[in-house]
Amino acid sequence: MSVKLLSLPLILFLSLWTTGTVLFGMLARHNLEQTVRKETLDLATLLQQDLQQKRSLLGLKTRWVSEESTLVAAVEKGDRSLLLRQVLPLQVALELDLIRIVKPDGESLLSSQQRSLQQAIFRESSITKIARTGIEVSSVLEAENAAPSAMTSFITIKSSESILATLVLGVAIDDTLLQQIRGETSMHLVALEGDRVSAATLPLDRSKPWQLSESEAPVRLQGTNLRRNITLQSM
Question: Which of 33, 37, 95, 168 has the fewest CB atoms found within 10 Å of its own CB?
């Protein structure tokens, strides 16, 4: 009997202790998930702000280059060799991966692609369409091959009398750019064109398609991380 009397409090204690541990663990997991979700939302907001700042800075660079008097004069003359001598130093100084100058009729006066965009193939019809309309726009040019996309800014080059051409400046959305944006944060970034991984801060198998749903993936503390999708306007 003494054994039973001693056993009952022990069993009750262990049962309560176990229940308490499970409840505490569930509460801790819930709080951790909420913390991770909030951190993900905060990082997504910072990412959007960073991309917007980069887009705005690219727009400022594009406007400044388009108003350079020597560049305007070279475009007006249609002097390709002079344009090349003027533009290449600017491309290096302004850290640009892509520069295009296209006349309203679609004729290309200048095309220069460097670094990770050197072998990129872009849809010329998209560039020509904007050049013909003469609108000012910021967008993403998707490469038709395995190269990264480009964040671009379009603006017209004008003389005192007419529109001479459209200037396109761009920077690659590549591994280097994503790593600069990521910095020392806990987030990882993946750039997708459809189901193709074009850039990432993770060592992914880029030969395989990525299927990305619109909703957030659930948090698994021993598995995948929370995901947040951000869409950039492309042509």
Answer: 95
